[in-house]
Amino acid sequence: MSQLPLSQKISVAVTVNGVQRAADCEYRTTLGDFLRHELGLTGTHYGCEHGVCGACTIHLNDEPVRSCLMFAYQANGKELKTVEGLSSDKELTDLQAAFKKHHALQCGFCTPGFLMTSAKFLIDNPNPTETQVREAISGNICRCTGYKGIVEAILDVAYQRRKLGA
Questions:
Q1: Is the Cβ–Cβ distance between 92 and 155 less than 8 Å?
Q2: Which of 68, 85, 102 is the last residue before a domain boundary?
Q3: Contact by Cβ (8 Å): 158, 122
Q4: CA separation (Å) from 35 to 20, 43, 83, 124, 134?
Q5: H and E: helices and strands count for the chain
Q6: 60 and 29 in one domain?
Q7: Does the residue 3 lie in any domain?
Q8: Where are the alpha helices (DSSP H) in the chain?
């Protein structure tokens, strides 16, 4: 079995938040490190680096993934969305505004992962119960808030979207 030359550089081209980007990195560079260090997208946070905390969650081809568990070259040619891509302008999205309104963040370290997880969850589940919300975010760890505000924010967005017919 042939081994990858870990220190050799490879070119990785991805579409991030609707923009085509490319950079060279080592084979062993994780997707999260590629986003942060090669592309300058620092909204994706690293917590445990083992896929447990969820802070590094991004969307890969519209599905949430832990960017610490993938190598950058595995995303070559794929579409990525990071927390920077949730809003296309300077305004907060309804989800970001709800996190602010419900005090769903304190230190903010886990917030990008929660936002990315919740954004996809609300697309797939526009009328969730509290139990479903708690299950959906169970793979994300917050050490500050106790989750109450996070759950309230997600439920509020679901309610407001249904009310507006969105």
A1: no
A2: 85
A3: yes
A4: 13, 9, 11, 26, 28
A5: 5, 5
A6: yes
A7: no
A8: 31-33, 94-101, 111-124, 130-136, 148-164
What are 57-74's pLDDT values in tens digits? Answer: 999 999 999 999 999 999
Express each pLDDT in 134-163 by its tens digit.
999 999 999 887 899 999 999 999 999 999
Range of the domain at 119: 94-164
> Among 130, 96, 133, which residue's Cα sits nearest to residue 111?
96
Confidence of residue 4 (pLDDT cuts 50, 70, 90): low
Give every CB contact of residue 93 below 8 A, 6+ residues apart in sequence.
86, 87, 119
Helices 111-124 and 148-164 pack at an angle, to 10 degrees, of 40
Inter-residue contact 56 to 46 (CB < 8 Å): yes
Q: Shortest CA distance to 8 belongs to which of 23, 22, 25, 21?
A: 25
pTM over 0.85: yes
Give the per-residue pLDDT at 88. 80
Q: Which of 44, 52, 64, 83 is nearest to 124 (CA)?
A: 64
Give yes or no: residues 25 and 75 share one domain: yes
